[in-house]
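note to self — DONT lose this again. spent like an hour looking for the file last time. sequence + predicted structure for the chain T wanted, 385 res
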Amino acid sequence: MSGFGLERQRQIFLDGLRGRKPAIPIQPAALEEGARRVMTPEGFAYVAGGAGAEVTLRAKRAAFERWAIVPRVLRDVAARDATVELFGRRLPAPLVLAPVGVLEMAHPEADLAVARAAARVGVPLIFSSQASHPMEACAAAMGDGPRWFQLYWNAVDAVMESFVRRAVACGCDAIVLTVDTTLIGWRPRDLDLAYLPLLHGKGIANYVSDPVFRASLAEPGDAVERFAATFPRPSLSWADLPRLRALTKLPLLLKGILHPDDARRALDAGVDGLVVSNHGGRQVDGAIAALDALPAVVEAVGGRGRVPVLLDSGVRTGADVFKALALGAAAVCIGRPYVYGLALAGEAGVAAVIENLWADFDLTLALAGCRTVREIGRETLTRVD
């Protein structure tokens, strides 16, 4: 859509003339603070917290500040095209909603509200394995909206295989295997509260709705205990990938890639895309920031265009989106911000966060002197540290 940013901006200011301010804060810090006020301490800790001393949690944002956009002027940017194509779908903007588990900690409608918002705006939602509603219900809420499925390869291969079959059956466009969370990292905010929502039966809707998982239960009340025994898979290795690759013809992405050698190995294994991510700073404290890892991963797979490389972790503004694309990302994944919007206003809050980010990106695109995503190259940035 040409000029989406200008249209969004104009509408907000026109609403201001009528005495209406945005219901969802636009500044990232205010958005997070608003969510903190309405969420339970346990819910906010689970969403906002990181591993260890949260060094990586801070580093993922600091990485964006090490790059500066160098705008070009007088280039006629009146007509712009922010669209991208991913796995056969033309998307209105280079935005994808990352998989976030246990969304019932933010809002009762959880994944269903997010699914409706994503479909309304037209951006893909990556269903989480740890969803609060089954993937089939989320798919039904999206109509023909684009969706992918994020897979945690648990300790029971038959359950993993059932999840993949269900994702295919409910119209997912891709499978995203998370490879950096075969164990849960050391997360002090959750530990201080002695609270892990999964052990309270939250975020396990895809398990309790799964026929293979249910068949393993001696009693219905055993679901949480069985899940706890099923989830960890620290033995997962490259040798396991062919089994997943053979299960489906859907595009397969690996999420959690930070090292270029792992990127090359993934391509050798027949993977169709990568998500450069440190899991939002929730797994390895002191790990490299995702944006810092991105250029080497893109180079390792042969540059932009060979396979899509997405950037996850730390994106908050349109400038962040621009910088990630300039460094080789095909699109970016958004996580915590849409959860904060969900906490504040359900479906409407999620849609507002997506649309605000899209508008910010569109205006940044224009003001940097670019008319299309294809025009965003490495030459549009300079390193400032």
